[in-house]
UniProtKB/TrEMBL annotation, chains A, B:
It is a multi-pass membrane protein. Its main location: membrane. It is found in: Membrane. The keyword Transmembrane applies. Residues 653-686 are annotated as: Disordered. InterPro entries: AA/rel_permease1 (IPR002293), APC_K+_Transporter (IPR053153). This is APC family permease. Coiled coil: none annotated. Signal peptide: none annotated. The chain crosses the membrane at residues 65-84, 111-133, 139-160, 172-193, 218-241, 262-283, 326-353, 374-395, 401-424, 445-463, 469-487.
C-alpha cells in the first residue's frame, strides 16, 4: 500500500539526484555562517518595518521612539547570543532547546519547548516566504499582485526541492546570504555617506505621505502598551538565533569554540543591519501604516486598497540607490532569496526535531531514523501543508503572520535558558576547581539574565499579541502537546503490557512442537521454493494446504502433485463460498484446539513486484490472510518471496533513493554522536 | 494500511447488521418474481414516455405511430423472453450472458459482453434513480426542484445500505414491486372502465398543450429514422430481462422450469403494462416534448424553463385517479421505490460479475471470492461513484441518460443469443435421440431469431443514438475492455514467468542449510516469544540481531540478555545514522555472500493492534524492513505476532463483518456450484 501513496509523490518529484554525501563534510565557519544565519539575518528584512508599523498607530510622531525600541532589541539580541554561547559550550553534542529543557527541567518542559518549536517552524516558513514575496514584489509588481498564489508556489517549490534532494547545499546558502549581507552593508554605508558627508536629501517613496493615527496623542499606560507591542514585533529579529545550538556537530574542530564565534558574528551582523535599516528609515522618512489603505494619506486623501506598502528595506534601498537601479534590484532579489532560504531551514529543522521526539516516543517510532528519506518526507509534507494553509488563510500577509510568530521562539528561549541555569546549578554542586567554578558561575549569571529577559519578553509578547493572533500559535502548541502526550502514553501502556513479569512461571506455556503448513494454489516455482524452504526448517510436521474454489483446478493440482511426486502431504479444504481466508483460519484454529501446546507455522509464497499497480494484482489475498492469521494466538506467518522480473525496477529505485540528500542537510553534522549527556540524564533522574 | 483506508468507510457505515443468512434460503416464485423483475418492470415507468418524446419531434400528429412502436417493442420482448428461456434451460447453473458468450464464442466475445454489462450496471443505477426522482417529484415538487442533489442522495443511501448490509432483503423487494404492479393494473383497468364503459373524458394535465414540432411533416427516410429512434428508446423496457438467467440457482426446484415460468410471467406483465400505459397516454392525450421549455406550447406560448415535464405514468395516473388522490400518491411512491430497487439490482450484479471476471483473471484475483465483503465493497463504491458522476454530468435527467443506456444491453443480448446458437449446434453434432434433436433445433431456431432481432436492434440503436450519447457508453466499454485485457496479460505473463520448466536441472540450486536471525530491540515478551518460536524451528544456526542506535539502550539490552542467560547468541550492529533497515539488509547480504547455498530466515516480532491509528505507531519499521528484505534472494521473513490487548477490538469487528449480508443477495442463490459446464469448456478448447 505504501507504494500506492508513493505514486503521486514520485510523479511530482522524479528521481532523487545523485549527490556526493555532503553530510560527511564538516563546515568551515565561512560556510557555517550563511548556513545557520540565513534565518536570523533575513528577519531584518521585516522586523524594522513591523516596529514602524505598530508605532504608526499613535501617529508619525511616535516614530521617534523607534531608536529606543531598536536599542531594546539590540540588548535582547546580545543577551540571547551570549546565553546561547553558553549552551554551545555546555552541549557540544548539539543539544537543542528541546533537549536542554527536557534534561534539566523534565519532560513536560521539554515537550512544551518541542510543541513551541514545531509551531515555530511552520511559521518560519509562512512568514519568511510571505516576506520574501513582498520584497520580490517591490521589484516585480506582478508577484505582489498575486501574493498568495506566488507564496504557495514557493512553498511547493521548496517542498519539491527537499523531497527530491539537491546536489550541493552549502554554496546554495552561502552566495545569497553573503550578497544580502554585503548589499545591506553597502546600502548603510552609502546612505550614511550621502546623508552625512555629501549632504544629499534621500527621500523614501512614502516620505511625503502622512498617517492618520488610530489613536492620536496616546499617553500613559496606552503608550507604554503600544511601545511594548512595537518591541514585540521587533523581536522577530531574534528568530532563528537558537539554530546554531542544534548544529554544533556540523562545525570543524574546535566545534564549540567555532560555533560560539559564529554565533557572536551572526549577532553582530544582525544588530548592525537592524539598527542601520531603522536609522536609514528615519533619515529617509519611511512611512508605514498598519492599515495602509485607510490610514496612509497622500495629500490628505487615503491611498486606497490598490496601494502596496513595500517593506522598509526596499523603501530604504529605493531612497539610497534610486528606484529601479541595479543595486536596488540585486538587493531585492537577494533579500527574497535569503528569506526563502530561511524558510528552507525549517524544512531541515522540523523533521530533525521530529526524529528526536520519535526517539523519545512522542511521535511514531519509525520517524526516529535520522536522515531517513521517508520519515523526512512525511515531516516536510506536514510542515509545508500547515504553512500553506496559514499562508492561504492570512493571504500571505507577513504583518498578520508575524502576530502568530515569536510566541514559540520565546517559549523555547525562556525554558532553554532556565534549563541552563539548572544545568550550572547541578554542575556547581559537584565542581570543586575554583577557576572552573568561577567560569560556571559567570555562565549561570548570563543564562539567568537570559532567562529573565526572554521570560519578560514572552509575557510582553503574550499580553500585546494574544488577541492579534498569538492565540492561534498557542492553540497549535496545545494540539501538538496533546497529540504527543497521547502517543507517549500509548507507547508507555504498550511497554508495560509487554514487559516481562519478574516472578518466574508467569509466562505462557512455551510451545513444544511446531506444525508447519505451506499454502499452495498451483504447482509453480514460488510454491516449490516455499516447500523447499519449509522443509529446511525441520518442523515436527509439515503439510501443504490448498483451498478448493474450483473442482477442476483442485484436480489439476492433485494430479500435478502426484506426477511430480512431491514428498509433502497435500491437504485440500473445500470452500463452497469460494472464500480463502475463513477456511484457513478455521483449520489453523482446529489444529490449535487439538494440541494447544503446539505452535503453527504458516508459509505463504509472496510475489515481489516492482510497480505500484502490481500490488493491486498480487498478494492481496495473502496480505489479508496474514492480517487475520496474526490475530490467532500461537501462529507465526512466514513470507517466502518470489522476485518477479519486474522487481528489478523497484530495486533500482530503492538504490537511487538511498543516495538522496536534503538541501541544507549539512546543518545536521556528520555523525549522530550519542546525543545526550548520559551523566546529566542520570543526575536528573535522582 | 488497509485499516487506514477503511476508517472513513467505517465512520460512515457503522457496524454491519446481524442477519439471518438469507443467502441460504431458496426463492419461491412469488418472491423470485419481484426480486428479479424490479428492474425490467420498473422500466415501463420511463420507456413509454421516451417513445412519445421522440415522436414529438415530428409533431403531435406522429403520436399515432406509437401503437406500432409499442407492437414492435412487444414482439422484441417476446423474442427476448423466449430466447432467454432457452438459456435458462441450457445453463441451469446460472450462466449469465458473459459465460454464455465466453464459452461459446471465445474470450473476446465474453470480454465484450462483460464490458457492456459493467457499463450497463452503472447506467441502470443512473437511469433508474433519475427516473425514480422524477416520479417522486410528480407528487413532491421539492424533489424535482433539487433533482441532482436528491438523485445523488439516493445513490449514497443505496450505497450505504449495501455496504452495511440489511436484515431482510426478500420482502424488501416483494412489497413495493407488487404494489407497483397492482397499482398500474388498477390504473389500466379503471382507466379502461372510465373511458370505454362509463364514457368519462379523462384529460392528462398536458392534454391542452400543443407541440411546436422541430421538423413538421417529416416523411420518407427522415420519418423512418425518427420511428426507429422512438423504437430504440422504447427498447429501454427490455433492460434487466437477462437478469434471471444469472439467478437460476436461487430458485426452488425444478430450478430451470421455475426460472423459465418466472421469466414468462415477467414478460407478460411488462408487455401488458407497457401497452396499457401507452394506450392510456393516447386516450388522455398526454403531450411530451424533447425540449419542453421551448417546444411545449400552452395557448400558443412556450411553457418556459420553469416547467417540469412529469413522466407519462404520472400524467396518466393523474388523469385516471385525479391529481393528489390517494391512489395517485401511492402509485408515484411505489414507482419511485421500484425504480430505486431496480438500481439496487445493479449493486448486486456489478460485484458479482466482478467476481466472475476475477476468476478468469480479468480483474484483480482477490475479488474472486464471492460474497466477500471487501471485494463487494470496492465494487459498489466504484459503481456508485461512476453512477454519481454520470448523474451529476447529466443533471439527473433520465431522458439524457437513456441515450447512453440500451447499447450495452443489446450488445450482450446479441452476443449471448449468438452464443446459444453455437451451443445448440455443438450439441446437435453429438445428439442422436430424435426427440431431443427436435427440441434442440426448436431452441436453436428461437435463439437464432433472437440473435437476429436483437442484433438488428443493436444496429438501430447505434445508428439512431450514437451522437445522442451512445458514444459515451461505447467509450466506457472500450475502457473496461482495455483495462481487463491488460490485467489478463499481466497475469498471463507472470504465470509464464513462474511456470516450472520441464527439463530437469533448470531450477536454481536448492538451499542446503538455513541461518535464522531473530530481530531484537529490547527484552520483552514479544522478543521472548519470537526467540522461543525460532528455536522450535531447529534451523542450522540461530542468532539474535540488534541494531545499536543508542549506546545506552544497547548496553541495557546486553546486560538484560546476560542476566536472563538467554541461550541464543546476541549480535549487535552499529548504525551511526540510526538507520535500521540498511544495516540489516547489508548483514543478510553478507551472510548470503559467505555461503550462497544457504537460506536466511529472519524473524520479526510484530504487534497485532486493534485500532487503525495504532498501525501508525507500531510495526512501520518492521513492515518497511520486510518490504526490503523480500527483494533479497534466498531470504524468508517470519512474523511472530504479539497480540496487544487492544487487538480484541479488531477481532470483534472482524466477527461482525463476517455476518454481513447485502441487500438483494438472495439473487445469488445458496451455493456456488461449479459454475461452468466443464465438458463444454473442453469442447470449445478443441
Amino acid at each position: 500500500m505504501s507504494k500506492l501513496t508513493d505514486l503521486p509523490k514520485r510523479i511530482l518529484i522524479g528521481r532523487a539526484l545523485h549527490s556526493n554525501k555532503l553530510g560527511e563534510t564538516l563546515l568551515p565557519k565561512r560556510i557555517a555562517l550563511p548556513v545557520f544565519a540565513s534565518d536570523p539575518l533575513s528577519s531584518v528584512a521585516y522586523a524594522p518595518g513591523e516596529v514602524l508599523l505598530v508605532l504608526s498607530v499613535a501617529g508619525v510622531s511616535a516614530y521617534h521612539f523607534s531608536p529606543w525600541i531598536a536599542l531594546a532589541v539590540v540588548v535582547l539580541m546580545f543577551t540571547v547570543v551570549a546565553s546561547y554561547r553558553q549552551n554551545v559550550h555546555a552541549y557540544p553534542s548539539g543539544g537543542g532547546d528541546y533537549e536542554v529543557a527536557n534534561v534539566n527541567l523534565g519532560p513536560k518542559a521539554g515537550l512544551t519547548v518541542a510543541s513551541a518549536l514545531l509551531v515555530d517552524y511552520v511559521l518560519t516558513v509562512a512568514v519568511s516566504i510571505a516576506s520574501g514575496i513582498e520584497n520580490l514584489g517591490s521589484a516585480i509588481p506582478f508577484v505582489v499582485e498575486h501574493k498568495t498564489a506566488c507564496a504557495i508556489g514557493v512553498i511547493v517549490l521548496l517542498t519539491l526541492m527537499n523531497l527530491r534532494g539537491v546536489r550541493e547545499s552549502g554554496k546554495l546558502f552561502a552566495i545569497p546570504t553573503y550578497v544580502f549581507v554585503g548589499g545591506v552593508f553597502i546600502m548603510i554605508a552609502w546612505g550614511a555617506w550621502r546623508g552625512l558627508v555629501a549632504g544629499d536629501t534621500m527621500k523614501a517613496p512614502t516620505a511625503d505621505y502622512t498617517i492618520s493615527a488610530e489613536h492620536q496623542g496616546l499617553a500613559g499606560f496606552a503608550l507604554v502598551f503600544l511601545l511594548l507591542r512595537a518591541f514585540s514585533s521587533g523581536c522577530a529579529a531574534l528568530t532563528g538565533v537558537e539554530a546554531i545550538s542544534n548544529g554544533v556537530p556540523a562545525f570543524r574542530k574546535p566545534k564549540s569554540k567555532n560555533a560560539a564565534s559564529t554565533l557572536a558574528l551572526m549577532g553582530g551582523l544582525a544588530v548592525t543591519m537592524f539598527c542601520g535599516i531603522i536609522a536609514l528609515a528615519m533619515a529617509t522618512k519611511v512611512r508605514m501604516a498598519e492599515h495602509p489603505a485607510t490610514e496612509l494619506l497622500n495629500n490628505g486623501k487615503p491611498v486606497g486598497s490598490g496601494y502596496t506598502q513595500n517593506p522598509v528595506i526596499s523603501q530604504v534601498a529605493e531612497a539610497v540607490f534610486g528606484n529601479g537601479s541595479f543595486l536596488f534590484i540585486v538587493l531585492a532579489a537577494a533579500t527574497a532569496l535569503v528569506l526563502f532560504l530561511a524558510a528552507n531551514t525549517a524544512y531541515n529543522g522540523f523533521p530533525l526535531l521530529g526524529s528526536i521526539l520519535a526517539q523519545d516516543r512522542y511521535l511514531p517510532r519509525q520517524l526516529h531514523t535520522r536522515g531517513d528519506r521517508l520519515a523526512f518526507s512525511n515531516g516536510i509534507v506536514l510542515l509545508a501543508g500547515a504553512a500553506a494553509v496559514l499562508t492561504y488563510i492570512y493571504g500571505a500577509d507577513s504583518t498578520k503572520l508575524i502576530q502568530l510568530y515569536i510566541v514559540g521562539v520565546f517559549v523555547s528561549f525562556t525554558l532553554s535558558q532556565t534549563g541552563m541555569v539548572r544545568h550550572w546549578n547541578r554542575h556547581l554542586r559537584t565542581e570543586t576547581d575554583p577557576a572552573k567554578r568561577r567560569h560556571m558561575m559567570r555562565s549561570r549569571a548570563i543564562n539567568a539574565f537570559g532567562a529573565f529577559l526572554t521570560g519578560l519578553v514572552l509575557v510582553v509578547v503574550l499580553l500585546t499579541k494574544f488577541t492579534h493572533g498569538a492565540w492561534v500559535a498557542l492553540l497549535g502548541m496545545v494540539i501538538f502537546y496533546a497529540t504527543m502526550t497521547a502517543i507517549r502514553k500509548h507507547y508507555d501502556r504498550v511497554a508495560e503490557e509487554i514487559a516481562i513479569d519478574e516472578e518466574p512461571g508467569d509466562e505462557a506455556v512455551r510451545p513444544s512442537r511446531v506444525h508447519s503448513i505451506v499454502l499452495v494454489s498451483k504447482v509453480h516455482k514460488p510454491t516449490l521454493r516455499a516447500l523447499a524452504y519449509a522443509k529446511l526448517m525441520r518442523s515436527d510436521t509439515l503439510e501443504a494446504l490448498s483451498i478448493s474454489v474450483d473442482p477442476a483446478e483442485t484436480k489439476a493440482l492433485r494430479d500435478e502433485w502426484h506426477r511430480r511426486s512431491i514428498d509433502v502431504p497435500l491437504k485440500v479444504l473445500d470452500s463452497p463460498y469460494r472464500e480463502i481466508t475463513r477456511p484457513i483460519i478455521d483449520y489453523v484454529k482446529s489444529l490449535r484446539k487439538e494440541s494447544p501446546r503446539d505452535a503453527v507455522s504458516v508459509y505463504i509464497p509472496e510475489y515481489v513486484v516492482g510497480h505500484w499497480y502490481e500490488h493491486l494484482l498480487h498478494n492481496q489475498s495473502a496480505l489479508r490472510l496474514k492480517g487475520r492469521l496474526l490475530f490467532t494466538p500461537g501462529v507465526m506467518v512466514t513470507s517466502v518471496p518470489w522476485q518477479l522480473d519486474s522487481s528489478e525496477a523497484a530495486k533500482k529505485r530503492a538504490r537511487k533513493h538511498a543516495e538522496w540528500n536534503a538541501p541544507g542537510s549539512v546543518r545536521r553534522g556528520p555523525v549522530a554522536a550519542p546525543k545526550k549527556d548520559k551523566k546529566e540524564k542520570a543526575a536528573t533522574k535522582k
